[in-house]
Write a structure and sequence with these properties.
alpha/beta, nine-stranded mixed beta sheet, seven-stranded parallel beta sheet, 23 strands, 38% helix, globular, binds glutamine
Length: 552
C-alpha cells in the first residue's frame, strides 16, 4: 500500500437512489481537475458475486470493463465522468468477499480460528478498500458504499470503514454522508429530521461523518444549514447542498459552488493545487441543455420500462448529441409492441433506430420488424450485440430467402443457424462470468462506414455475449450486399456488419456504449447521430419538394 493515498468513503442515508454514484463521480472529477490522480470503487452489499446474473429490471444495466468484469452501472458513471477506465477491482460485492474468505478457510489459511464477520470479513473488506493502490499509485481513492445506512447487509462495511478510519486517522480517511432533506408541501418546509436520524444511525456504528451532502429540491437556507451542522456534529462549511439538477453532468459545478472540493482537501490536509478548469464541461452542458437542433432516436428494447437498463446507451446518445450540438429526443419503444402492422405508426417518424442488446426470446419479433423497417426505409440503424444478430436474422429471412434463419439462442434446432453459439461457449453450463467478456481487438475494413467513423483500422471494444455470426453463411451474406466490416483478427469472428446500399446501417457484436465518455464521445455514436440528422434534413427536403409539386 502506498502510505500517502487518501481515502474518501461515500455512504447513503434516509433512502436509496439519492445519487451516491453521481456524487462520488462529481467529487472525483473536481479532484482530478485540481490535479489529483483519483479513482472510484463501489462496494455492493448483495450476495451475488457480481451483477452479471441480475435481471436488468432488478438492478439496471450491467456495465462491462476492459478486463471483462460484469459490474454495477455506477462504474459507467465513473468512467464517463473521469475518462479513465475501471476494472474488476473497482467493484466488490458481499458475495465476492465471502467467496474469498470461505476459500481461504478451506485452504486452512486461518489456522484453526473460528471464522467470523469480525475480524475475518471486515479484514477482507479493508484489504479490498486498499487493493486499487497495490498496482497503481492514486492520490485519492473514493469508495462508494452501496445500500443505505441501517440496512442489515451494510453493517460489515460500515464496521470495516470505522476500523479503517481509526487505523488511518481522519486526515487520511474521510466520510461523506449523502442524505435527503425533504420538502413537505403541506408545511411548506424543508425537514432536517431524517438526516439527523440517519447520522445517529451512523454514530451508533461508531462513525461520525465529516461532511454532509444534502439532496434537496429547494435551496437550503442558512439557518437550516446551521441546524443540520449543530445536530449532526459537522462544521457549518461541511453541510453541502446537493440541489436537483437538470442533468447529472451539472452536478460537478453545483458541488464546486458549494466548495465541496475545497472542504474535502482541507480535511484531508492536501493542498488545493490549481482551480478546477470546468470550461470544457461547461460548454458540453450548455450544448446538452440548449442544442441548436434535435434528432429523434427510437431505442427498441425489452426492458424499456426501466431506463437504467440501457443507461450507457442513453448516455452515449446524449453525449454524442451534445458534441454534434444536437439534442436527442429518445423514444423508448417496447420491442413487444412492434408489429408489421403498427411499424409505420411507431417507427415512421424516427430519424434513427437503435436495437438494443438483450437475452432470451421475448420481444425478438418486434426487433426483427424494426430492423427490416430501418433497412427498407433507409433509416439510420445501429444494432448493438443482439441488435446486430437481429439485423443478420432479418437480412437472412427477407433478403437471402432463408425463411428459418435464426439464432440458436431462440431456435436451437433451426436448419439455418445464422447466429450460433461460439465454439468455446458450447461446453459451458455455469451462468456467472462465463460469456465472452471484455475488450477484444477488431480489424476494421478500409473505406467501410465504420472506418469512416473511427478513422482507424484497429480498434478495441468490449463484449458481453455467447452467440456469434455463423461464418458458414458469410459468403452468401457478402454476395447479397452485407459487408463484414469488422473482424476479430485472431478468431475470425464477425464483429461488425453493415449494408453497402444503405446510408447508415451498422450492427456491432461489441458494445460501443461502454467506452463513450463526456470528454471522448464515441465515434460510432457520433456518426449515428450525424446520420440521423442528415436523414431528418433529407426527409424535410423531400417533403418540401412533394408539397411544392402538389401546389404547382
Ligand atoms: N443474447 C445474445 C448473446 O448472448 C446477445 C447478448 C447481448 O446483446 N449482450 O450472444
Amino acid at each position: 500500500m502506498s502510505d500517502s493515498t487518501k481515502y474518501i468513503f461515500v455512504t447513503g442515508g434516509v433512502t436509496s437512489s439519492l445519487g451516491k454514484g453521481i456524487l462520488a463521480a462529481s467529487l472525483a472529477k473536481l479532484l482530478q481537475l485540481r490535479g489529483y490522480s483519483t479513482t472510484i470503487q463501489k462496494f455492493d452489499p448483495y450476495i451475488n458475486i457480481d451483477p452479471g446474473t441480475l435481471n436488468p429490471y432488478e438492478h439496471g444495466e450491467c456495465y462491462v470493463t476492459d478486463d471483462g468484469a460484469e459490474t454495477d452501472l455506477d462504474l459507467g458513471h465513473y468512467e464517463r465522468f473521469l475518462n479513465v477506465p475501471t476494472s474488476q477491482a473497482n467493484n466488490v460485492t458481499t458475495g465476492r468477499i465471502y467467496e474469498t474468505v470461505i476459500r481461504k478457510e478451506r485452504m486452512g489459511d486461518y489456522k484453526g480460528k473460528t471464522v467470523q464477520v469480525i475480524p475475518h470479513i471486515t479484514d477482507e473488506i479493508k484489504q479490498r478498500f486498499r487493493q486499487l493502490s497495490e498496482n497503481q499509485r492514486f492520490d485519492i481513492i473514493i469508495t462508494e458504499l452501496g445500500g443505505t445506512v441501517g440496512d442489515i447487509e451494510s453493517l460489515p462495511y460500515i464496521e470495516a470503514m470505522r476500523q479503517f478510519r481509526y487505523e488511518h486517522g481522519p486526515e487520511h480517511c474521510l466520510v461523506i454522508h449523502l442524505t435527503l432533506v425533504p420538502y413537505l408541501q403541506a408545511a411548506g418546509e424543508l425537514k432536517t429530521k431524517p438526516t439527523q436520524h440517519s447520522v445517529k444511525m451512523l454514530l451508533q456504528s461508531g462513525v461520525q461523518p465529516d461532511i454532509l451532502v444534502c439532496r434537496t429540491e429547494h435551496p437550503i437556507p442558512d439557518d437550516l444549514r446551521a441546524k443540520l451542522a449543530s445536530f449532526c456534529n459537522v462544521r457549518l462549511n461541511s453541510v453541502i447542498e446537493n440541489i436537483n439538477a437538470s442533468t447529472i453532468y451539472e452536478v460537478p459545478f453545483l458541488l464546486h459552488k458549494e466548495n465541496l472540493d475545497v472542504v474535502t482537501l482541507n480535511k484531508l490536509e492536501l493542498p488545493l493545487l490549481q482551480d478546477p478548469d470546468l470550461s470544457k464541461w461547461e460548454r458540453f452542458v450548455h450544448r446538452l441543455q440548449q442544442p441548436s437542433g434535435m434528432v429523434r432516436i427510437g431505442l427498441v428494447g425489452k426492458y424499456v420500462e426501466l431506463h437504467d437498463s440501457y443507461l450507457s446507451i442513453s448516455e452515449a446518445l446524449k453525449i454524442a448529441g451534445a458534441h454534434n450540438d444536437l439534442g436527442v429526443d429518445l423514444q423508448w419503444i417496447h420491442s413487444e409492441d412492434v408489429t408489421e402492422e403498427n411499424a409505420e405508426a411507431l417507427l415512421g417518424n424516427l430519424n434513427g433506430i437503435l436495437v438494443a442488446p438483450g437475452f432470451g426470446e421475448r420481444g425478438i419479433d418486434g426487433k426483427i420488424v424494426s430492423a427490416r423497417f430501418a433497412r427498407e426505409r433507409k433509416i439510420p440503424y445501429l444494432g448493438i450485440c443482439l441488435g446486430m444478430q437481429i439485423a443478420v436474422i432479418e437480412f437472412g429471412r427477407n433478403v437471402l430467402g432463408l425463411s428459418e434463419a435464426n439464432s440458436t439462442e431462440f431456435a436451437p434446432q433451426t436448419p439455418e443457424p445464422v447466429i450460433n453459439k461460439m465454439e468455446e461457449q458450447k461446453a459451458i453450463t455455469q451462468m456467472g462470468g462465463t460469456m465472452r467478456l471484455g475488450a477484444y481487438e477488431c480489424k476494421v475494413k478500409r473505406n467501410s462506414r465504420i472506418h469512416k467513423a473511427y478513422l482507424q483500422t484497429h480498434i478495441m471494444e468490449r463484449h458481453r455475449h455467447r452467440y456469434e455470426f455463423n461464418n458458414d453463411f458469410r459468403k452468401a451474406y457478402e454476395e447479397a450486399g452485407m459487408v463484414m466490416s469488422g473482424i476479430n483478427p485472431k478468431s475470425d469472428l464477425v464483429e461488425v456488419i453493415e449494408l453497402a446500399d444503405h446510408p447508415f446501417f451498422i450492427g456491432t457484436q461489441f458494445h460501443p456504449e461502454y467506452k463513450s465518455t463526456v470528454e471522448t464521445p464515441h465515434p460510432l455514436f457520433l456518426a449515428f447521430i450525424n446520420a440521423a440528422y442528415k436523414h431528418k434534413k433529407h426527409n424535410k427536403q423531400a417533403a418540401k419538394s412533394v408539397n411544392a409539386l402538389k401546389e404547382s
